[in-house]
Structures are given as structure tokens and as C-alpha cells.
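Quick one, C-alpha cells below:
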């Protein structure tokens, strides 16, 4: 019987494992650390799950946080003074992955998936490949960082374009209607304000995307553990100066929930090769951030990781030979969505001048604003809208 080994216990690895177990395929998930440590550890991300991902959760029987109860159904945009709201056809939802991933790991184990805690490096891949018919690498961190070669044509950046400062906060009045607020301070960076369910209950995630060397970059230099008052004061000052759409709803009791609930760092976007030969006609298939890393500014990372896992699971279940032909078929099946998300995100990180025409047009056309927002569910469609000035104008003209 076919067996699959999955290295990496993030959303890509867990969704793949759950989908394969639903198809009756034996799975071993190799996790770098125990899930109890993950749950008690520092903030992992502030990602929102969009409707297609939530539908996959329902199909897998792991939709534990219904979007109707915990989600939101709109995006409020504030872009250099231009304001508009776009509404989703179906709601999205954000749950702290320190709650999400351990719960799904329990689901996987309860359905017969094996979870093995061990560090895996490049030298271990041959051993693991010998245990399984197919090895899937679903983590691009640590010793496996850069395992799969970059595809230069789809990886224009060799350094981070933003400094990420993401934290969980109380003391922000919710937007009306409940929504993610996307603020853009031209030349300085972006802010995503996300209603999120955490171990503290409902909180607000503030994901600052700061231009290196800009005025907001100071947020990545301060430690709330060392000087909580200075950190709070600086965040408030920068909100008021650069992100007024969020600052106008800040209350007197505004505070970071816990020093562990802050993530400071940076991401270098990259698209990597889909697979790697391991010898003896065995292959490692790339998944999740081992394959495509996008900056979190458009909130696509977890969503495309889940999508890629679903495509891979369907192809694994439909085949019995996991050779280069199989790997190339997986690559073709998922390419348009993954490359669309990557290209769209990179465009936002280095916006062309004509992107301002889009924001002005959306501010004056609620129907197009809703369509643009709905396309967060469909990054391939969004890229077809945004790829060129001609396409943007055709979208605004309704052609």
C-alpha cells in the first residue's frame, strides 16, 4: 500500500495529511517540535483563512471555528487617503495558528495519521524516502531552507521588501461592518488590521508591513518585553501618523496582549522548483513555504499552502507511481493559482504608478470593489485583473 511521508507540520502538511487519510492512504507527519510547545510558544502569523480554504476544512471535517460566528465579510481600504469598502460573497475567518495547528494535529492522529517529532535535515531525506513511496517537504525553515532551487523568473527579490511587525492587541473598537482594514501609507508600508480568535478570546491583530529604512521601521527595533511602555507609545504614534483608519478606533486600554504575541522579522518572497530527485527514482515534492513564499501583505500564504496540499492530495490518490511524470503533473495542476498569488503580492510590494488608477476607480464603483475583494479568494483571477495597466482599465470599464 502507498505510504506518504510529510516533513513539516504547518497548514500545508496537516491539510495534506488529513486529505490523504480521508482517501485511506497511510501518512507519517514529521514535526520539528511537539504541538504542545507550539501552542505555548510565540506568535506564528496572523493569517486569515478565505472561503475556499474554509470549504476545504468543511470537506475534511475540521471546520472547528465557523466563519458565521468568528469571521468577517468585508475589507475596508484606506490607501493614501482613498477610502472604500469591498464585501465578500462568503466570509473569511482568522484563528491563531497556535490554536489551529495543534487541533488539526489531534484530528490527524485520531484518524490514523502517524505524527513523529524529530528534526529533519537534508541528510535525512534519503532515509525517509526509503520508508515511503513519496516524500513531501512542507517546510522551508531551518536546515531545509533553500532545499529546492529558486526559479529566478518568478523570484524577483533577493532580500525582504518589508519588515514584518505583527502583534495581537486589545483596545481597538471593531470596524463596522466587521472587516479586515487594509491601510497603505505610500512610501512607508502597509497595515492589515484583522479580527482574530486567540487564546485570549477575540482580539485584533495588527500586521505592520514596514518599508526598510522608513519611518515605521523603528517598530522592528523595539522590544515590548524590555520596555512595554515605549513599545506601546511608539505603536500609537505610528498608527496616528500613518494609519488613521485604524488609529481613529483605538481606545484608552489599547495594549499588546502578551510579549509572546508579537512577531518581528522579514520574508524574502520566492518561488522554488516543484520537486527534487533523491536517487533510486524517489522524489521530494515541495509544498507550502518550501515551494512558494509570499510576503504576508496580501494574506495569501496559508491559503495557497492549503490549496497546493489539496491539489497534491488529489493527484496522489489518483496515481500509484510517484516519479518525475507525477511530480510534473502536480506542478501543472497548481501552477496558475500559486504563481498568481506570488505575482500579485510582488506587485503590491513594488506598486507601479498606475495602480493608483485602480484605487480611485474602486472608490467610485462599489460593485467593482466587491469583485476586487472577492478575488482575495481567487489569486489567479486577481492577477488577471492586476497584471498590466490595460487589464486594470478593462476591469474598471467592465470589459
Amino acid at each position: 500500500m502507498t505510504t506518504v511521508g510529510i516533513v513539516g507540520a504547518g497548514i500545508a502538511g496537516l491539510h495534506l495529511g488529513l486529505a490523504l487519510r480521508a482517501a485511506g492512504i497511510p501518512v507519517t507527519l514529521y514535526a520539528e517540535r511537539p504541538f504542545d510547545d507550539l501552542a505555548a510558544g510565540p506568535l506564528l502569523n496572523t493569517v486569515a483563512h478565505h472561503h475556499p480554504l474554509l470549504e476545504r476544512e468543511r470537506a475534511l471535517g475540521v471546520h472547528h471555528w465557523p466563519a458565521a460566528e468568528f469571521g468577517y465579510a468585508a475589507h475596508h481600504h484606506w490607501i493614501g487617503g482613498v477610502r472604500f469598502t469591498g464585501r465578500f460573497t462568503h466570509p473569511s475567518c482568522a484563528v491563531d495558528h497556535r490554536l489551529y495547528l495543534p487541533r488539526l494535529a489531534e484530528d490527524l492522529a485520531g484518524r490514523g495519521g502517524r505524527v513523529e517529532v524529530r528534526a529533519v535535515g537534508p541528510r535525512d531525506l534519503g532515509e525517509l524516502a526509503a520508508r515511503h513511496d513519496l516524500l513531501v517537504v512542507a517546510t522551508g525553515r531551518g536546515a531545509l531552507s533553500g532545499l529546492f532551487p529558486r526559479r529566478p523568473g518568478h523570484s524577483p527579490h533577493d532580500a525582504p521588501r518589508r519588515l514584518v511587525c505583527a502583534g495581537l492587541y486589545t483596545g481597538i473598537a471593531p470596524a463596522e461592518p466587521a472587516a479586515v482594514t487594509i491601510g497603505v501609507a505610500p512610501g512607508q508600508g502597509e497595515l492589515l488590521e484583522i479580527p482574530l480568535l486567540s487564546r485570549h478570546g477575540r482580539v485584533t491583530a495588527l500586521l505592520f508591513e514596514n518599508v526598510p529604512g522608513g519611518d515605521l521601521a523603528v517598530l522592528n527595533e523595539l522590544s515590548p518585553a524590555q520596555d512595554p511602555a515605549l513599545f506601546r507609545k511608539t505603536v500609537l504614534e505610528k498608527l496616528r501618523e500613518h494609519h488613521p483608519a485604524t488609529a481613529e478606533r483605538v481606545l484608552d486600554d489599547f495594549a499588546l496582549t502578551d510579549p509572546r504575541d508579537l512577531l518581528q522579522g522579514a520574508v524574502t518572497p520566492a518561488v522554488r522548483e516543484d520537486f527534487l530527485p533523491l536517487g533510486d527514482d524517489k522524489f521530494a515534492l515541495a509544498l507550502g513555504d518550501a515551494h512558494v513564499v509570499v510576503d504576508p501583505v496580501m494574506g495569501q500564504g496559508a491559503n495557497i499552502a492549503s490549496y497546493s496540499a489539496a491539489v497534491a492530495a488529489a493527484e496522489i490518490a489518483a496515481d500509484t507511481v510517484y516519479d518525475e511524470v507525477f511530480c510534473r503533473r502536480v506542478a501543472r495542476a497548481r501552477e496558475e493559482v500559486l504563481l498568481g498569488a506570488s505575482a500579485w503580492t510582488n506587485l503590491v510590494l513594488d506598486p507601479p504608478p498606475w495602480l493608483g488608477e485602480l484605487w480611485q476607480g474602486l472608490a467610485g464603483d462599489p460593485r467593482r470593489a466587491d469583485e476586487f475583494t472577492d478575488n482575495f479568494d481567487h489569486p489567479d483571477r486577481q492577477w488577471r485583473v492586476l497584471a498590466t495597466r490595460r487589464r486594470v482599465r478593462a476591469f474598471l470599464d467592465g470589459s
